[in-house]
Amino acid sequence: MRSQLEGSLAVAKAVALCRPEVISAYPISPQTHIVEALSDLVRTGELAPCEYLMVESEFAAMSAAIGASATGARAYTATASQGLLYMAEALYNASGLGLPIVMTVANRAIGAPINIWNDHSDAMSQRDSGWIQLYAESNQEAVDLHIQAFRLAEELSVPVMVCMDGFVLTHAIEPVELPTQEQVDAFLPTFDPRQVLDPDDPVTIGAMVGPEAFAEVKYLMHAKQMQALDLIPEISGAFSQAFGRTSGGLVHAYRSADAETIVVALGSVLGTIEEVVDELRTEGVRIGAVGVTCFRPYPLDEIRAALQGAKRVVVLEKAFAVGLGGIVGQNVRLALSGLPVQVYDTVAGLGGRPITRRTLRTLVTDVLEERLEPDRLAFLDLDWKLVERELQRLSDNRRSGPHAENILRDVGTVAASAHGGPR
Amino acid sequence: MFQVRIHGRGGQGVVTAAELLSVAAFLEGKHSQAFPMFGSERTGAPVVAFCRFSDQPIRLREPIVEPDALIVQDPTLLHQVDLFAGVGHETYILINTSRSLEALGIGEFLATLQPERVLAVPATELAREHVGRPLPNAALLGAFAALTGAISIDSVTAAIRDRFSGRIADANVTAAEAAHELAAARGDQVPVHA
């Protein structure tokens, strides 16, 4: 049924349709509405049988999910930002043990400076944790990816993270097609675990492994992710057969087949990018976009195939590797190695700064008119004057004070700006 | 595409107003999207929410920089926030106040706009009278329907009933209809949005 719903509520309803048996969660903005709604569905009995554990931290949330999954229960949790970092140790245990937990990450920046708004620093920090990472472009896709995620996780016995942009998607109210229980039941079989803690048939999950076999057990994590590269498109195809719409898969291409310039991005910013692609196409610019839906495993071949016809690729990413540069950018360069394609790497939207059509057009124009250097990290909308003033203070004065306070004083912001537009 | 920006303070229901408007548009078969621009949420702090609706699916996720309509729930924000950023000659402006626009000190600015597209409505008073609490949302959306014609009053009241039930729904519907009547009576006719 098509409903006008908040993204968080839509995802909570989709997760409930997947019949999780244990949900353990700790609230953190902007994820809170999801687990609030789920706890309500458990309380009212709409989601049953399901045990909802209100744990004392994210570390406990993931640990409880690990325990539940190991006993053969379908387990779910959700988090964001520092919450994801707080569960980092347990994340590696979930993936190393091969437990098919599904988790929503409502993407939010990581402090300091403390900031509750959207970017991809949280999920990107855990890209190599052994979890599959899927990024939703819209709330519809977030709903659909959760249903696919349980099937994927349980088929391979790997954990899956579904990333959706905090606030931008979680708090957006828009039309969402929610499937029926019968449809989801037909698509998602009952959880048949590959390993299970059962007193009648005891096994050890999490045995210590020394140098004689550690690499082999670890390699299996990689082998399963490589299998996921085949399984993800297969599940996406089965989903579109069953539900009549296309969602998921490895990459989304938009008007990129004959494009000279292709913008690459993850998540909800793709909608705005597609609008700009349409505008520029009517002006005769041969431009397209490629969305990376599955970032881990990294679909090297599919990304190479989607981009190899372009002259230039502009990577727009909401996180960066401090001391090096773009994260998605590095991965895209790897996919294009040996090809004469110029890659421009741009960091945008950090800490919730809006990415607008205007700034995207400026970026594309700067690239086309060669005002940006390829292979050199660029920041969209960065206020260089503010940065330079603070760098000057650093060089002028030993006790130059805290960066955040100094820069906020320069900006003159106490309250939020009028409409949150770029300054 | 019709884009609305709503300004208010935490606790006044700014986000709910945007949501109700999006549901009203949805009920008319339109594609619609509502989203807030949160600060760290505190009662009384300035809050902005957005709603855009269209006959086409909406992919755009940027904040509304150039609104087709602006709703101001709390005129004391005039001294704190750049409410009129991006407002042009075509923009509809709806302000919740029982005072005149001149008395708010913005008569001069508003005179540069189209007079039939600017409206003050005593939404808080209407809410006190009909709802018993100073929550101006329903009244503002009723007036919005009359001012812009972008959404019908029936859709506004249906959205209210979709969100609330019982006496609360009835009271808010009455407030919305009263404000709609007041706004419609101001002009000779209800302008129709193209």
Keywords:
heterodimer, A: 423 residues, alpha/beta, Rossmann fold, 15 helices, 17% strand, disordered C terminus, B: 194 residues, Pyruvate-ferredoxin Oxidoreductase, domain 3, six-stranded mixed beta sheet, 6 strands, globular
Could you provide a short overview of the structure?
The complex is a heterodimer of chains A (423) and B (194). Chain A is of the alpha/beta class and 423 residues long. Chain A has 15 helices and 15 strands.
Structure notes:
The complex is a heterodimer of chains A (423) and B (194). Chain A has 423 residues and is α/β, with parallel strands linked by helices. Chain A has three domains: 2-243, 3-Layer(aba) Sandwich (Rossmann fold), CATH 3.40.50; 251-379, Rossmann fold; 390-423, no CATH class. Chain A has helices spanning 7-17, 32-43, 58-70, 81-86, 88-97, 121-125, 139-156, 181-187, 214-243, 269-282, 300-307, 327-335, 357-368, 384-396, 403-411; strands at residues 2-6, 22-25, 51-54, 75-79, 102-107, 132-135, 160-165, 173-177, 251-254, 261-265, 287-292, 294-296, 312-317, 342-347, 378-379. In chain A, strand 6 (132-135), helix 7 (139-156) and strand 7 form a beta-alpha-beta unit. Chain A is globular. Chain B has a single domain (2-186), classed as 3-Layer(aba) Sandwich (Pyruvate-ferredoxin Oxidoreductase, domain 3). Chain B contains six helices and six strands, in the order βαββββαβαααα. Chain B has a six-stranded mixed sheet. In chain B, a hairpin with an 8-residue loop joins strand 2 and strand 3. In chain B, helix 3 packs antiparallel against helix 6 (166-186), helix 4 (137-148) packs parallel to helix 6 (166-186) and helix 5 runs antiparallel to helix 6 (166-186). The interface between A and B is medium-sized, with 31 and 33 residues.
